[in-house]
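Lecture 7 notes: from sequence to structure.
We start with the chain below.
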Amino acid sequence: MVRAGLRAVLASDPEIEVVAEAGNGAEAVEVVVRHRPDVVLMDVRMPVLDGLAATAEVKRLVPETSVLVLTTFSEDEYVARALGGGAVGFLLKSGDPRELLAGVHAAARGAAYLSAKVAERVIAELNRGPGGSRMARGAALRGRVDALTARERQVLALVGRGLSNAEIGRRLHLVEGTVKSYVSSLLASLGVRNRVQAAILAYESGLVGLDPADDGG
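Predicted structure tokens for the same chain:
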């Protein structure tokens, strides 16, 4: 029933084609290897192989496929763990269907996607106990955000908004290769592994919601 609902929402967008479905994590990995889709919607709780293990396996076998994790408010700890598995975004199962479509499009563009509600919960989970030390590391990482250059903070803010490198380049009047260099530099400076972790820090530090033009030009 859940898969049927997701398929119906996705089918409403003429730019999205559903190429396969899976009933468990192991089957999900198999169909991804077979079809090599642009984006996978991965449930956290599945039989045979859970969504976290399936996400890590998908990224190992088909790294070009972007994985969006479907979660609920009761599964915050799984979301925190999925960060290390290579997921590019998180969606609430009970969220607005328009958010689902936006997330799929963002992932297909190579951008991170976090709904505001999910971001708030993920930040809270990451900052609570051992999970927080892996990614947020409290005030230390916030200090690293402050230590970024003005341009890097602009780029980080737009990463937090779910923009791809090409979109950031158009927004800031930079060539895509330059944006890629800025993203690589700020990921290294922040000590995070990927765009979705950087996006969470953008939320946590308050950069998301600012107009990048106001952050040092």
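Points to note: The first strand starts at residue 39 and ends at 43. Confidence is low (pLDDT under 50) at residues 131-138, 210-217.
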